[in-house]
Design brief:
The complex is a heterodimer of chains A (about 120) and B (about 120). Chain A is mostly beta strands and about 120 residues long. Chain A contains no helices and twelve strands. Chain B is built from no helices and eleven strands. The chains are: A mainly beta (about 120), B mainly beta (about 120). At the A-B interface, strand 6 and strand 11 of A face strand 4, strand 5 and strand 9 of B.
């Protein structure tokens, strides 16, 4: 079974600064996907960024980027130029490539607070 | 498109009562799933379905029943509610017939359930 570990229950950052959230995972699969989801106080789950394991290039989406280290099974999220709207819970998630069974395994989350 | 809708948004039950959480999607997605979110636990998969008439158990299925009679609807039934089922419940859906290797999961807004 796959497991996802987020070792930082809470983090804070000053507005406009950069913060990195950590995520490690354990799997014997070779083909899989990794995701970061954002959950603001509204409770809605929002996909921030995804990474295919077969791609060596790290994914980026505007101010969000990942550092994917497949051998180390590490998948950290970097948020640049932090904004107050980035305040939220962030969940790292794993999905194996199973062709139609899109089961997600989530970490326990990191609560990020952006301070003005 | 309304996306993924869930009703009700909030519910309070007494121990032993039964109820059904409703989930519907209008995107013609084959895959639908239910997760529960507890403080400090992330999201955990309860049940999932890869198409009408097909359901399977996830990580934490005990105490819950599901059925999938149509592509659009995937209700979650609590037959005899227990305080341990106090949680926030999310429904999600995705297409499994896309041209890419991965199909994004879309989440509903969640149902907060309290069992007294």
């Amino acid at each position: 079974a796959q497991t996802v570990t987020q070792s930082q229950p809470e983090m804070s950052v000053q507005e406009a600064e950069t913060v990195t959230l950590s995520c490690t995972y354990d799997t014997s699969e070779n083909n899989y996907y990794l995701f970061w989801y954002k959950q603001p106080p509204s409770r809605q789950m929002i996909l921030v960024i995804r990474q295919e394991a077969y791609k060596q290039q790290n994914a980026t989406e505007n101010r969000f980027s990942v550092n994917f280290q497949k051998a180390a099974k590490s998948f950290s999220l970097k948020i640049s130029d932090s904004q107050l709207g980035d305040t939220a819970m962030y969940f790292c998630a794993f999905m194996k490539h199973s062709g139609g069974s899109e089961k997600l395994v989530f970490g326990k989350g990191t609560k990020l607070t952006v301070n003005p | 498109n309304a996306g993924v809708t869930q009703t009700p948004k909030f519910q309070v039950l007494k121990t032993g009562q039964s109820m059904t959480l409703q989930c519907a999607q209008d995107m013609n997605h084959e895959y639908m799933s239910w997760y529960r979110q507890d403080p400090g636990m992330g999201l955990r998969l309860i049940h999932y379905s890869v198409g009408a008439g097909i359901t399977d158990q996830g990580e934490v299925p005990n105490g819950y029943n599901v059925s999938r009679s149509t592509t659009e609807d995937f209700p979650l039934r609590l037959l005899s509610a227990a305080p341990s089922q106090t949680s926030v419940y999310f429904c999600a859906s995705s297409s499994t017939s896309g041209t890419g290797p991965y199909n994004e999961q879309f989440f509903g807004p969640g149902t907060r359930l309290t069992v007294l």
